[in-house]
Amino acid sequence: MENIVESWRIFIAIPLPKAIKETLSAWSEGQKSAWEFAKWVHPEDYHITVQFLGDTPANRIREIKQMLERTAAQSPAFSLEVAKCGTFGAPAAPRVLWAGVEGELKALRELQAKIATASTELGFTPEERPYNPHITLARKYRGHGRFDPDSLRLASADFGTWKADAIVIYRTHMNRKPMYEEVARVLLKA
């Protein structure tokens, strides 16, 4: 009889601290009546994606974690700040509402490049799009009128700063809230 290995949909991300998640959640609650998106992200699911790995045999998690440990040992923690909001997709009917990231972006981009290279060496396919760090807040605008991109400038808030000191492997559970489960956490170099 053949051993069947369970496959998990996984990605690597920078986690957000509880205080930042709470601030983003409170801000999002205040926007829901003005901006009619079909799906608002659960506050526990806020993160900054570093590398999407996709469907992966669960027995490879240890190997991926070891790769992250080697990468983290060479990558110092860095400061990040949640910044202005924006959208992806057609301006009148965006598919994603996001919060931007500022701060030590050079360190974040270097970490992302190291992880992308190391995961490619493990056989994973790298993203073809340029890396654009952000925090997804909502998906699929369903408003009755056109979305007004100018309203994003008026709605920005002070979301706060934090020290990004860890990288996490998340598993996706479709149709569950929250939908992301932390599988492994690795600390960056102190």
UniProtKB/TrEMBL annotation:
Motif HXTX 1 per UniProt: ranges: 47-50
Primary enzyme class: hydrolase
Electron transport is among the record's keywords: no
Active site: 47 (proton donor), 134 (proton acceptor)
Keyword flag Manganese: no
UniProt record similarity statement: Belongs to the 2H phosphoesterase superfamily. ThpR family.
PANTHER family in the record: RNA 2',3'-CYCLIC PHOSPHODIESTERASE
Entry protein name: RNA 2',3'-cyclic phosphodiesterase
Organism from which the protein derives: Paenibacillus haidiansis
